Amino acid sequence: MKSLKLIVSNKYSGQTRFSKADIAVSKKLEIACNYFDIRFVDSIVINREKHSSMKDEGVI
């Protein structure tokens, strides 16, 4: 693998749950990264108090 890719975003609503759009975009990015031999590590949503990891929750 040439490099690593980690996606981190914050939501102004304060929610750390993943929307259907968050999941769809992350899965597409993972496929694209694999095509270019880039390791997609995780997609994380954060706010001031907590975070959610798609990898930890088994989404990707």
Number of contiguous helices: 1
Structural class: alpha+beta
Task: Characterize the overall form.
Answer: elongated
Report the order of strands and helices: EHEE
What is the terminal separation in angstroms? 18 Å
% residues in beta strands:
25-35%
Q: Can you summarize the main beta sheet?
A: 3 strands, mixed
Biggest sheet strand line-up: 1-2-3
Indicate the low-confidence ranges by residue numbers.
Answer: none
Q: Helical content, roughly?
A: 25-40%
Integer average pLDDT: 84
In words, what does this structure look like?
The chain is α+β, with helices and mostly antiparallel strands. Helices cover 27% and strands 33% of the residues. It has one helix at 20-35, and strands at residues 3-10, 38-46, 51-53. Strands 1-2-3 form a three-stranded mixed sheet, covered by helices on one side. The longest helix has 16 residues, at 20-35. The chain is elongated, with a radius of gyration of 12 Å. The two termini are 18 Å apart.
List the defining traits of the structure above.
60 residues; alpha+beta; three-stranded mixed sheet; elongated
In short:
With 60 residues, the chain is an alpha+beta fold. The chain contains 1 helix and 3 strands, in the order βαββ.
Compile the SSE list and pairings.
Blueprint: E1 3-10, H1 20-35, E2 38-46, E3 51-53
Parallel strand pairs: 1-2
Antiparallel strand pairs: 2-3
